[in-house]
Amino acid sequence: MSNPEKNRTTVEIYGQQYIILGTESSSHVRLVGSLVDTKMREISSKNPSLDINKLAVLTAVNAVNDYIKIKHQLEQLQEELKKEKD
Fold first, then answer.
1. What predicted TM-score, i.e. pTM, was given to this entire model?
2. Radius of gyration of the chain (CA)
3. What is the pLDDT, as a whole number, of residue 1?
4. For residues 4 and 30, what is the distance between their CA atoms, to the nearest angstrom?
């Protein structure tokens, strides 16, 4: 079994540079990094006293919350499509 080639992409998130290794395209990784940076800055602007660790955790909580909502919506749509086919 062959391992997919890993791409190395540098992204800047909240003023820090990170090197991300993964099989996703560099443009995808840059998009993810940009979205994380935007969300961190949005949360920070509303809660300027947060330290970086709490800010990172709140950003992760927000991202997972959005993921769960979207996953649930997708499951509902798939169920509706399945009912229409039957």
1. 0.84
2. 17
3. 58
4. 19
